[in-house]
Design a protein that fits this description.
The structure is a single chain. By secondary structure, this protein is α/β, with parallel strands linked by helices. About 40% of the residues lie in helices and about 20% in strands. It contains ten helices and ten strands. The strands form two sheets. The chain has a five-stranded mixed sheet, with helices on both faces. A five-stranded mixed sheet has the order 8-7-6-9-10, sandwiched between helices. The radius of gyration is 20 Å and the shape is globular. The two termini are about 30 Å apart. About 55% of the residues are buried.
């Protein structure tokens, strides 16, 4: 089956065509991403209204390019999949409405995809993973461990009680004057710095439940910067390195706890797999630590290519293909959702902040 995927949940306008064969193996026929980073950089973050307008202006030609690169037309597509949430609601509406129009005009099934499910299932496309496996989803809006037990079967094992990891990187970058997007900027500065210069905290380290708390780390970084202001370039690099070192320690410790919990819940699994997905998964320091931690726990770390870790339409098309194979399609009345947890049964995790409520 051949599925067209559309992704417009934040600041990337993306379309892709993915093919899934009868044995469940997948291939990418096209992958088109138009980034809006330059449009938002001057504001230090994504402006929802600008993002939605940019999707309206670009989406038609992005879809046309994806079809052309795949050597197909709407007639040759078996279904249309689009992100229906969670995300910036204006952008989600643009993509989902476009998908509905195409599905209606072309007489094709519509599949409303949870953006997080796209991340959760990407490793099945790239690495052919079998269920179950453990997912660490780390992005600008989400930080959580999820047991991926099947298509549509997700159980949250841990989450953040305040900031998401990507959000913490963005705020650290803004504090240090490193620009936007924050994750790559902090990583680049950290490569030049001394990670031992500033003793920053590691919140929730050694706690049995694999949850995260990052607001205290962010505050400690601000206080350390204020104490030595004005900052020299060396100060900025050392602060970035110390921040990234703290984050890496936190992620390593929390992942070890999550893998132990996953083992308890899946004692019959012949081997364990930890999948990292989301924009922060591109961070090489975090990946390197996870390779070590996973190996120590008897797990294998699977990290999709960096291009498929951030927002992209390949993962939406693939999730659509996985759902289509099970006969899971949607009507044209399906609504866009600004919030849509993978595990809809898990209680919201609310600590010192409210961010965990959407995780």
């Amino acid at each position: 089956m051949k599925v067209l995927g559309i992704e417009t949940s934040c600041d990337e306008t993306a379309a892709a065509v993915v093919i899934r064969d009868t044995e469940g193996h997948g291939s990418i026929a096209s992958d088109v991403i138009l980034s809006q980073v330059d449009a938002h950089a001057v504001f230090g973050g994504v402006v929802p209204e600008i993002a939605a307008r940019a999707h309206v202006e670009a989406l038609d030609r992005v879809i046309a390019t994806a079809l052309e690169e795949a050597g197909t037309t709407f007639a040759g597509i078996d279904a249309i999949a689009a992100t229906a949430g969670p995300g910036l609601i204006g952008g989600v509406i643009v993509g989902l409405t476009t998908a509905k129009a195409i599905a209606l005009a072309a007489g094709k099934p519509l599949i409303a995809v949870n953006h997080l499910e796209g991340h959760a299932l990407t490793a099945r496309l790239t690495d052919g993973l079998a269920f179950p496996y453990l997912l660490l989803l780390v992005s600008g809006g989400h930080t959580q461990f999820v047991s991926v037990d099947g298509v549509g079967a997700y159980r949250r094992l841990g989450t953040t009680i305040d900031d998401a990891l990507g959000e913490a990187f963005d705020k650290a970058a803004k504090l240090l004057g490193l620009g936007y997007p924050g994750g790559p900027a902090v990583e680049a500065a950290a490569a030049r710095g001394d990670p031992t210069r500033f003793a920053l905290p590691r919140p929730l380290l050694d706690r049995p439940q694999p949850d995260f708390s990052l607001s205290g780390l962010k505050t400690a970084l601000r206080l350390a910067a204020e104490k030595i202001a004005p900052l020299s370039p060396k100060d900025v690099d050392d602060l970035a390195a110390s921040f990234q070192a703290a984050v890496t320690d936190i992620v390593g410790d929390r992942s070890a706890r999550a893998m132990a919990l996953f083992r308890q819940e899946h004692p019959d699994a012949s081997s364990g797999t930890l999948v990292i997905a989301g924009g922060v998964a591109a961070n090489e320091a975090i990946r390197s630590r996870l390779v070590t931690v996973a190996s120590q726990a008897g797990f294998t770390l699977v990290a999709p290519p960096a291009r498929l870790c951030g927002d992209n339409a390949v993962m939406i098309a693939w999730a659509g293909a996985e759902r289509l194979a099970l006969g899971l399609v949607d009507g044209l009345e399906v609504a866009a959702r600004p919030r849509w947890p993978l595990d809809e049964i898990a209680a919201p995790m609310i600590g010192s902040g409210q961010k965990g409520a959407k995780a």
